[in-house]
Amino acid sequence: MPEIRRACKVCTPRRGRPTVPPAPHPERPARRPHSVSATAQADLPTYTHIVVGAGTAGCLLANRLSAHPDFRVLLIEAGGHDDYHWIHIPVGYLHCIGNPRTDWLYQTDADPGLNGRRLRYPRGRVLGGCSSINGMIYMRGQSRDYDQWAQHCGDANWRWEHCLPFFKAHEDHWRGGDALHAAPGFDPSGQRAGGEWRVERQRLSWEILDAFAAAAQEAGIPATEDFNRGSNEGVGYFEVNQRRGVRWNASKAFLRPVVGRPNLQVWTGAKVQRLLMTRGADGGLRATGVEILPEQGGAPVRARATAEVVMAAGAVGTPAILQRSGLGPGGLLQGLGLPVLLDQPAIGGNLQDHLQIRAVFKVQGVRTLNTRAAHWWGKAAIGLEYLFRRSGPMSMAPSQLGAFTRSSPEHAWPNVQYHVQPLSLDAFGEPLHPFNAFTASVCNLNPSSRGRIHLTGPSVDDAPSILANYLSTEADRRVAADSLRLTRRIAAQPALARYRPEEVKPGVQWQRDEDLARLAGDIGTTIFHPVGTCAMGRDDDPAAVVDSRLRVRGVAGLRVADASVMPTITSGNTNAPTLMIAERAAAWIRQAADVQA
């Protein structure tokens, strides 16, 4: 029988280290499989629900579904365990992105909107998924985002007021409970009492960021202490998913506390080649399980789901797996030699992302990370501060200060977001500049450009083609030019004057709209928020892959519960909305099972 290596290892809640469970007791079932049979259909390990992808959504789904006494749940992750120390140190994202241990190492296609450039496109390949390598920013978006979803889907359940309880269902907020936030999830003794998803204030401040915030207020952007109350307009420090200066990922929050449940199994190092399908007498398709390729090679392994397969592999992984399974654009699949079980061109389409335009300003009379970390003694001081206080630059999220505002007066709501950092560099992963500087990255929250995800080959090891089509519409190019002008207006305010900001990138010599839009293509980069590639919508909408309850149209027993179902991108960072989507999906799955019972 083929063995899935590390399939029976899980991160324990006490130390966070993977362990191999002991041999099964003869009078009780084993908690984790050591091997599974792929020799005959009757030998397939059988579960009620299989969750594909142990990332942000998958970890929550595994927690909620395995809480149902009648469910037997399998959670499948292609990557490994989140026991790499750089996952948990906040600044460690620098060591996780671009690392095959934790990242799929995707790249985009050459993008015309970026003047032919290709971008690194990080996606988490580890327990916790992108929550193990992302910027840790807690951001729900704007209430209007969800009201638009409800209108688009014809389902009032997606309105803001109906989504809010599902944000609060897992929230553990430092402020305490009120109408918009859940109370802290730990009682005075340190025991968990409420939600699992910890939200804290950052454990640092920077003089240059405080000055930028003051300048933004002088430019007409109000101060705010909470971006998550339905309208995120304002400027302030981001709240982050950390606990006492340590990253709080979905694996810690949702998976570790429940790994002892006898009805939950977690397989790692297990790449899903395709979904198993049957076609009924009426011609209808049904998802019945998955075919898995073990990380260490060997024969494919299959597992069966009697109720549902739930896709939670993300906006890149989910459409790729569906396409490999024969669900997607018929011409594309035929060209790759794949059977076409459901010709659905929308699978992999509608890709949306936030493109950040990074403006760099050299400053004087103030220290930034550029010079603070320039020498060994500075690095040593930073390390000691984190070691003893869990604060300072090593506790930093990639961006610390945020602002939401309008790029120009004609917008009725905040349409751009700033991520402001007390540092500068030419590109991600390159050395810091040798002078003091800050970076003001600004992104269009509601881009009209649309891209797509397509397979390039039939194997799970064939990286997909990712074309975001950034800046492909006149509206997006206009917002890009206006955003750079707005950044310049903030930098020219009196609050920053004492630091004599000097624009290094893109450069004040560029003033015309067409020049600024072109330069946005030269310096813009993804902020890692891909969504929309299996969008939900009305049943009569040909662009809708799933219905408003996230069930795949045309395939029974198959649901999608990750960022790919967003019909339009949220106005901010996308991790918190993805958890809300998973929370809703789990409730609907449990509800459907209880009704059938």
UniProtKB/TrEMBL annotation:
Keyword Flavoprotein recorded: yes
Residues binding FAD, per UniProt: V126, V272
Transmembrane stretches, start-end: none
Residue span(s) of domain Glucose-methanol-choline oxidoreductase N-terminal: 314-328
Keyword terms: FAD, Flavoprotein
GO molecular function: flavin adenine dinucleotide binding; oxidoreductase activity, acting on CH-OH group of donors
Domain of life: Bacteria
UniProt-annotated stretches for the region Disordered: 13-37
KW Flavoprotein (keyword) present: yes
Pfam family, one: GMC_oxred_N
Cofactor: FAD
Family: Belongs to the GMC oxidoreductase family.
Record's protein name: Choline dehydrogenase
Protein source organism: Ideonella livida
